[in-house]
Design a protein that fits this description.
This protein has 804 residues and is an alpha/beta fold. Among the domains are: 4-14 and 530-803, Rossmann fold, CATH 3.40.50.300; 39-61 and 499-526, no CATH class; 65-272, no CATH class. The strands form 5 sheets. An 8-stranded mixed β-sheet has the order 16-23-22-17-21-18-20-19, sandwiched between helices.
Length: 804
């Protein structure tokens, strides 16, 4: 313990508590640094493990390469015309304005990537398994899977192929059993029918294992589109940069080059398709116009031959006579049709079901007249039967059935006859209209001949125009070329795009540092017991009087004459020195030792404190006042049949209670005596007060070992006799919450001059206690029996870490 700590730990003088000059931030930083130093071996192991895992990952991870390509696009806004483009554009009929932004979207299109996937069968991946990792292979596969039929949507599937040399193979998957086949056999797989063909340029070994991964076309397109990037590096130029991430550089280069070729081919095809469509349209129009021109010429010839304009008057009379005959025949047929409709309406009327069909309306059709005669005869027969029978008579019913059948036949026959009459009427009307039309056309024949001549001139002009445009379209098609030109074909970068070696190693280092740091941090924040000096400062305002290191001794008494050079003894000497500041009055000599719970070292501190005071030549008495669970007499091997409890009830005199101890000649002992049933009541007796008055007169120091104040009230009952209180807390044992007891005792002054003594402090820089205790700098550890200094170097640090 250094001097600055003494000023803090010496409690309070004249009612004022001393504070450390160090800031909290410096303490926290120092604690972190010390924590790292004290656990350096965990950090070294974690760093080795983190870097080792990173190196293993770099060794066995499948690297991704970036394949780059660059094309230039003709953009009217940014220039970039190709040499000779101006001359060709003068011949082109279809000068579409292209720009870089549109072409970028075309290159990103799904249809373009889907064509590449189809052409290269990128939905089928070939892999080869090593001892640890499985890598994709491309170009040197000794076989190839060709799909005869493949479903559009399918669940991804993996096949394993075991080659059997030139004889054949064995193929299997999870959803399918093993299939043995020969090269070129058609296989019925889960996804459809396929053929496994032999690539003879590559050798094949028997028993070699390959993998085939099959995914849907849609998934393959989506995967490659996700890894495909297009950008325009500068808005002032018409250059397009393309990049693709692939695990196999050769495959990536093939995909990008195929995509560029497909784009260029599609661009030219679009222009040629427009030109071909135009030429085809012109060819069709030429056929039509040529036919129309020939037709007009033939019409003129035919018109001259068919229309003899020498005797137009006689031709008109003949036409008028023919029109009169047709009108007479048309009238007769229309009358006949009216009769048929009336008769049809009469037959269909349900009211006339039992009436005879009128013979006056019967048309002159033999078949229909025969049916009407049979129908009327049955109606008459039915009327005669009803005169002597009812309608329920079977004979009457039979007649009704026959009448119904004949009535249906009448309707059918009448409908057929009606349609024949209607056809005759339409034919007569057509002929009559034709004759009327000829009559009206006779005065305009000369005008029609002039129209024919004008149409002939128009058709000739249109025919010549189409021939000219067809030749221009053919020239335009021959001048079509892609609007883009390849500047840099696809080329893979020599260094993998990912994983990046430096980044992975850095992550390994960070993880190696983070894991032990996180473990130490969680250990600290989850711990409910006192581990650091700051844990005490943050939970209690009580000053720390001294710190006692960890003891390897099994004996209760450590402070002995022969052990005077031990660091632990020096720490008790520090308590003795610091007590001079606490017990500043002339008659202040009673020291009460208590704690929160059992096991914190009250008896150990009290006994050795009595011993170190006795070593200084003072007359000391040690009182075992833990009447419920006495430990001093038990550990010292002292008979405890008589003691304070027997004195309090009057069975033992004061002179008999005070007995010499084996601790030191200057140290006397008062044992607790037999455990009483009412310890608290005994402490309230008048004899207890008399005992302390006697001891004040006889001894220089009275050390009182009491029961834990956090469990029972014995300590508070004895507080009125004490001049100072030593509250014992044990590192790694006392709960942080129990420090609130010392806080209450200190702030509410329930006990006099409360000071903390930290017991069982381990040698750990991270705990905030430094390398020694009291005057123990350089004296070694509390458990060292030889008093030797700690050795330097790696070995000593490992030993130190194990002991801590």
């Amino acid at each position: 313990m250094n001097s600055s700590d003494n000023m803090h730990l010496n409690g309070h003088v004249n009612g004022q508590t001393f504070k450390s000059d160090s800031t909290d931030s410096k303490i926290v930083v120092r604690r972190i640094v010390d924590k790292v130093i004290s656990n350096w071996y965990w950090f070294v192991l974690s760093l080795i493990l983190g870097v080792g895992i990173a190196m293993a990952y770099l060794r066995y991870a499948n690297p991704d390469y970036k394949i780059n390509a660059k094309i230039i696009v003709k953009d009217d806004k940014k220039g970039g015309d190709f040499p000779g483009q101006e001359i060709l554009s003068q011949l082109s009929m279809f000068n579409n304005k292209d720009n870089v932004d549109n072409e970028v979207e075309v290159l990103k299109s799904r249809s373009l990537m889907e064509k590449v996937v189809h052409d290269l069968q990128l939905n089928v991946l070939y892999t080869e398994s090593g001892r640890i990792k499985t890598a994709e292979i491309f170009g040197n596969v000794p076989f190839k899977l060709h799909w005869v039929s493949l479903r559009d949507t399918l669940i991804p599937n993996d096949y394993q192929v075991i080659t059997k040399g030139e004889q054949g193979f064995e193929i299997s998957s999870k959803g399918m059993g093993k299939i043995n086949g020969k090269w070129g056999d058609t296989l019925k797989l889960t996804e459809g029918a396929a053929v496994l063909t032999r690539e003879w340029q590559f050798p094949v070994d028997a028993g070699h294992k390959y993998g085939i991964q099959v995914i849907s076309i849609d998934n393959a397109v989506a995967n490659y589109q996700k890894n495909f990037a297009i950008s325009v590096p500068n808005k002032q130029v018409s250059v397009i940069d393309m990049s693709l991430i692939s695990t196999v550089p050769a495959k990536g280069e093939l995909i990008v080059n195929s995509l560029i070729n497909a784009y260029l081919h599609a661009n030219v095809e679009d222009k040629n398709r427009i030109a071909d469509s135009t030429i085809t349209f012109i060819d069709r129009r030429l056929v039509v116009v040529s036919s129309e021109l020939s037709g007009v010429e033939k019409d003129i010839q035919q018109f001259k031959q068919d229309n003899n304009l020498a005797d137009i008057t006689e031709q008109s009379k003949a036409l008028i006579s023919g029109t009169t005959d047709f009108a007479k025949q048309l009238t007769e047929q229309e009358v006949n049709l009216s009769v048929i409709k009336s008769l049809e309406s009469y037959i269909k009327d349900d009211k006339n079901n039992t009436r005879i069909v009128p013979t006056a309306l019967i048309v002159q059709d033999p078949t229909f007249m025969s049916l009407v005669e049979k129908y009327n005869n049955l109606e008459l027969e039915r009327e005669r039967l009803l005169m002597t029978n009812t309608e329920a008579n079977p004979v009457v019913k039979n007649v009704d059935i026959q009448i119904a059948g004949l009535r249906a036949d009448l309707q059918t026959s009448l409908g057929t006859y009606k349609r024949g009459v209607e056809v005759s009427i339409r034919e007569l009307q057509t002929r009559s209209s034709a004759l009327n039309s000829q009559i009206h056309q006779v005065p305009g024949k000369e005008r029609i001949f002039l129209d024919y001549s004008r149409q002939q001139a128009i058709k000739q002009e249109l025919y010549l125009f189409l021939l000219k445009r067809r030749e221009e379209s053919a020239i335009s098609k021959s001048s079509n070329m892609a609007i883009a030109r390849v500047i840099d074909p696809a080329k893979s970068e020599p260094i993998p795009f990912k994983p990046k070696h430096s980044l992975v190693i850095l992550i390994g280092l960070l993880v190696g540092i983070a894991i032990p740091s996180l473990c130490l941090y969680l250990k600290d924040i989850l711990s409910t017991r006192i581990a650091y000096k700051n844990d005490i400062k943050e939970n209690s305002p009580v000053p720390i009087l001294a710190e006692i290191g960890h003891s390897e001794y099994k004996d209760l008494v450590v402070v002995k004459k022969e052990n005077s050079s031990l660091p632990l003894v020096e720490q008790f000497r520090a308590i003795r020195t610091n007590l001079q500041f606490v017990l500043s009055g002339k008659n202040e000599k009673i020291i009460l030792v208590t704690s929160s719970m059992s096991g914190e070292g009250k008896s150990f501190i009290a006994t050795n404190l009595a011993a170190v005071l006795a070593l200084s030549g003072k007359k000391v008495v040690l009182m075992e006042m833990d009447l419920r669970k006495p430990k001093i007499s038990l550990n010292l091997g002292v008979n405890n049949q008589t003691g304070f409890s027997t004195y309090a009830i009057g069975k033992t005199l004061i002179e008999d209670v005070i007995r010499p101890s084996d601790i030191h000649p200057n140290c006397s002992l008062i044992t607790s005596g037999p455990i009483p049933p009412n310890p608290a009541e005994l402490l309230l007796l008048e004899k207890t007060e008399k005992l302390f008055e006697h001891l004040r007169q006889e001894f220089d120091y009275i050390i009182v070992d009491t029961a834990p104040v956090g469990l029972v009230t014995d300590g508070q009952l004895l507080a009125k006799y004490a001049d100072a209180t030593l509250y014992i807390v044990r590192q790694g044992f006392t709960f942080k919450a129990q420090l609130q007891i010392s806080r209450d005792l200190y702030l509410q002054r329930k006990m006099p001059k409360v000071n903390l003594v930290v017991n069982d402090v381990k040698m750990d820089r991270a705990s905030g206690y430094g390398y020694g205790y009291g005057y123990g700098y350089g004296y070694g550890y509390a458990g060292d029996t030889d008093g030797s200094k700690p050795s330097k170097g790696l070995k000593s640090r490992l030993q130190k870490s194990k002991k801590a």
